[in-house]
Specification:
The structure holds two protein chains of two kinds. Chain A is mainly alpha-helical. Chain A contains 16 helices and no strands. Chain A has helices at residues 2-9, 14-26, 31-59, 70-105, 113-132, 160-187, 200-231, 245-279, 286-300, 315-327, 329-343, 352-375, 377-383, 387-417, 423-449, 464-494. The radius of gyration of chain A is 23 Å and the shape is globular. By secondary structure, chain B is an all-alpha fold. Chain B folds into two domains: 14-73, Helix Hairpins, CATH 1.10.287; 76-292, Cytochrome c oxidase, subunit III, four-helix bundle (Four Helix Bundle (Hemerythrin (Met), subunit A), Up-down Bundle). Chain B has eight helices and no strands. The chains are: A mainly alpha, B mainly alpha.
Chain lengths: 529, 293
């Protein structure tokens, strides 16, 4: 394919080349092409979602209403959440899965390449539909990404119906992607690549894909009921007809909690690949790592109502969900222990990917601790719907997972493109990000503990200082990411050629291929012993 | 745009324009429904365009796969991948229905008793003093906004007949599948045909029952939570039966063309059979928990 395109380029006119370009990428079935598409789309959505976030932080810079109306502020928080979740952090994980899983298990491609194309192209289609709601009459959805009934049913703006369809399409996309990933891992492993030899990244994605198949259809069901309540007079979430708004919360969080691990597990996998490489030691406790991944996957299904402690559940249920939630700290703790023990007495070097991975371990552990605080039901009555919750899950998603994915991007960049990134720019990016992201989110813990509620455009005067600091951090963090993009683009042409192994301590099948790897990774299966 | 020639070990399909067209079809379909719901005159037409494009895509995409299979391009690994994919697709459908059943049991075993004042008696007294918890719920808390059903049909009439129809159809489909494996093309066609008839009869009876419920029993979508869950569960099940009938009809069409008597791995029929059995099991659960108990 690549040969065909270059030969044709010489004679073709500009519109002809444009059409060829469109056709090449829209009809792509190659796992690397689709992985690249996923990663680029995720990066674009990161900046769209980030712009929405900066609008939020600009409004909260000082008290009072400066830039946006309260209702538009609510649409900002809603769209920021939905775009970042479905448009950035899920696709970035799928992008790495597409690129890496076939290379790591010794396969030429994904098992179902055409399905793979469809799972990708549903993503921008749905994202466009989602973002278009911002420009519709009545405004975009304004009830938060959690879409609680009756805010979304009785009181939602008309554009809510389109948001529901966008969620349906994203759900189809995720389910197809997961089917493909599980099938690839199940049927395309190279001879000798037994289950307990799979790299941890592949294991984490296997569990993630099962999580997705177990939750995305439930979300589809929930938004379908929402659609019916809005348009066809049903009473699922309306107590006047015998329904129950709490039903929505239960179904939504049955999806929502495992969703957190859908995002987290691939990040765990990436960190488990990076740390051994730069510690020049094999991963400590591979078996416990796999076991912890499966355990986290299982536990994530049975803890959902810890998001609903203040909804009037019976005490017995609160007690159960509190204790079950705390159990998750055990396998997560095993993972953190293994990462640290892998580094212990290793000959560590601190290239950019390793910096991001270490920052991930540190900040994710911190986020886990605030998670345990939130799991304590009586204490949660104080923290619930406050900025403490915002701080907690942004520590998980930004300081934790986004750092892991950025580390992964630097780690595999030379392998994917055959050129080294600029280490100097990478360090600037890391240190600016690592400092500013803590300036951004750390003060929000104090705001929440002092009683500042989430999702409001204005606040009382005692919250001024910390909001001011937080907004400063937000802008520095946001603009630091431009260094990353600049590094990616310029290194593509100007970077040093990368060797096949790239990193001295790198282990695994993907490093045995050339940099960049051939179009179809392994034409004949490699022998693994 | 020539792909590198596939090795004898792996089959790698070339670029395809069907997936992107499928995405466009789905987008058109959903935007059409959205416009329709918002009473824009273009709605139904946009929706129809989406459906039409979807039909084209399904013919094109599946036609592509069928011709690749018949030309012998596939190997054993492709067959295993298709089987794994179909199993996981059915798993996702199981989860879809499990979510609805979960909602059903939550409402029936927790939501309604709560409304009846079982946990905090004060709420029902303040809001709806006359409400009494029962299942099936015929009198809603606010019976002016949601006028409850007057009467419910017996499970031992049409629902029982439907159960027998679907159970029989599962047997006839298995029979057809066995016939294909044994190379009896006549029995295969007869088995598929009878299965389609049974499935279509099921759909006809279900439609008849819906009309009856609407006209005589006032069991409507607007009849409160009982009507809501009843139509949600049976409606999505009925839709799956419809999809199954279309799939089996496709298999019959292919059998008439003689596809299954040619050498090759005929996974399609097997996958359709799995799907049909799954739909059958969902119905048994519906019959048990929604109609009967």
């Amino acid at each position: 394919m690549a040969n065909g395109a270059t030969v044709g380029e010489v004679q073709r006119s500009v519109p002809g080349r444009f059409i060829a370009f469109i056709v090449r990428w829209t009809t792509a079935t190659n796992h690397k092409d689709i992985g690249t598409l996923y990663l680029c789309t995720a990066l674009l959505n990161l900046f769209i979602g980030g712009t929405l976030a900066l609008c939020i932080r600009a409004e909260l810079f000082v008290p009072g209403l400066q830039f946006v109306e309260p209702n538009f502020f609510n649409t900002l928080t809603t769209m920021h959440g939905l775009v970042m979740l479905f448009g950035f952090i899920m696709p970035v994980a799928v992008g790495f899965a597409n690129w890496l899983i076939p290379m790591m298990i010794g396969a030429p491609d994904m098992a179902l390449p055409r399905l793979n194309n469809m799972s990708f192209w549903l993503l921008p289609t749905a994202t466009i539909l989602l973002i278009s709601t911002l420009f519709m009459d009545g405004g975009a959805p304004n009830f938060g990404w959690t879409m609680y009934a009756p805010l979304s049913t009785t009181y939602g703006p008309p554009s809510t119906d389109y948001m529901i369809f966008a969620v349906h399409m994203l759900g189809i996309s995720s389910i197809m992607g997961s089917i493909n990933i599980i099938t690839t891992i199940a049927t395309m492993r190279a001879p000798g690549m037994t289950w307990m030899k799979l790299p941890v990244f592949v294991w984490t994605w296997l569990v993630t894909a099962f999580l997705l198949i177990g939750i995305m259809p439930v979300l589809a069901g929930a938004v379908t009921m929402m659609l019916f309540d809005r348009n066809f007079g049903t009473a699922f979430f309306d107590a006047a007809g015998g329904g129950d708004p709490l039903l929505f919360q239960h179904i939504f969080w049955f999806f929502g909690h495992p969703e957190v691990y859908v995002l987290a597990l691939p990040a765990f996998g990436i960190v488990s690949q990076i740390i051994p490489t730069f510690s020049r030691k094999p991963l400590f406790g591979y078996r416990t790592m796999v076991m912890a991944t499966v355990l986290i996957g299982f536990l994530s299904y049975i803890v959902w109502a810890h998001h609903m402690f203040t909804s009037g559940m019976p005490y017995g249920a609160q007690l159960y969900f509190m204790l079950a939630t705390m159990l998750i700290a055990v396998p997560t703790g095993m993972k953190v222990f293994n990462w640290i023990t892998t580094m212990f007495r290793g000959s560590i070097s601190f290239e950019t990917p390793m910096l991001f991975a270490i920052a991930f371990v540190f900040m994710f552990t911190f986020a886990g601790c605030t998670g345990v605080m939130l799991a304590v039901a009586p204490a949660d009555f104080q923290y619930h719907d406050s900025y403490f919750v915002v701080a907690h899950f942004h520590y998980v998603l930004v300081n934790g997972l986004t750092f892991a994915f950025l580390g992964g991007a630097y780690y595999w960049y030379p392998k994917f493109w055959g050129r080294m990134y600029s280490e100097r720019l990478g360090r600037w990016h890391f240190w600016l990000s690592a400092v500013s992201v803590n300036v951004l989110f750390f003060p929000q813990h104090f705001l929440g503990l002092a009683g500042m509620p989430r999702r409001i455009p204005d606040y009382a005067l005692q919250f001024v200082d910390f909001n001011f600091i937080s907004s400063l951090g937000a802008f520095v963090f946001g603009f630091s990411q431009l260094i990353f993009v600049y590094n990616l683009i310029t290194s593509r042409r100007r970077g040093e050629p990368a060797s096949d192994r790239v990193w001295e301590g790198a282990q695994g099948l993907e490093w045995t291929l050339s940099s960049p790897p051939p179009h179809h990774s392994f034409q004949t299966p490699p022998k693994v012993d | 745009m020539s792909e590198p020639t596939p090795t004898d070990k792996y089959y790698i399909p070339a670029s395809s324009h069907w997936p992107i067209l499928c995405c466009i079809a789905l987008l058109t379909f959903f935007v059409g429904i959205g416009r329709w719901l918002h009473d824009l005159p273009s709605g139904p037409w946009v929706w129809l365009c989406g459906i039409a494009l979807l039909v084209v895509v399904l013919f094109g995409w599946f036609g592509n796969v069928i011709s690749e299979n018949l030309s012998g391009a596939y190997n054993e690994q492709v067959g295993r991948s298709f089987r794994s994919g179909m199993k996981l697709l059915i798993l996702s459908e199981v989860v879809f229905f499990a979510g609805f059943f979960g909602g059903y049991f939550f409402i029936r075993l927790w939501g309604i008793p709560m409304l009846g004042g079982e946990v905090h008696p004060i709420t029902s007294v303040m809001l709806w003093p006359d409400f009494s918890a029962e299942w099936p719920l015929l009198t809603n808390p606010d019976n002016d906004r949601f006028l409850g059903a007057t009467n419910l049909g017996s499970p031992w009439g049409v629902p029982l007949a439907n159960t027998l129809l679907l159970l029989t159809s599962s047997v006839t489909l298995t029979y057809a599948h066995r016939a294909m494996a044994a190379g009896h093309s006549g029995t295969l066609k007869a088995g598929l045909f009878i299965t389609i008839l049974l499935g279509a009869t099921f759909l006809g009876l279900q439609a008849h029952e819906y009309i009856d419920d609407y006209e005589r029993n006032n069991l409507t979508l607007n009849a409160g939570i009982y009507g809501s869950v009843f139509y949600l569960l049976t409606g999505f099940h009925g839709f799956h039966v419809l999809v199954g009938v279309v799939m089996i009809s496709t298999m019959l069409g292919r059998a008439l063309k003689g596809h299954f008597s040619r050498p090759g791995d005929h996974f399609a029929l097997e996958g359709v059979a799995w799907y049909w059995h799954f739909v059958d099991v969902v119905w048994l659960l519906l019959f048990l928990f929604v109609y009967w108990l």
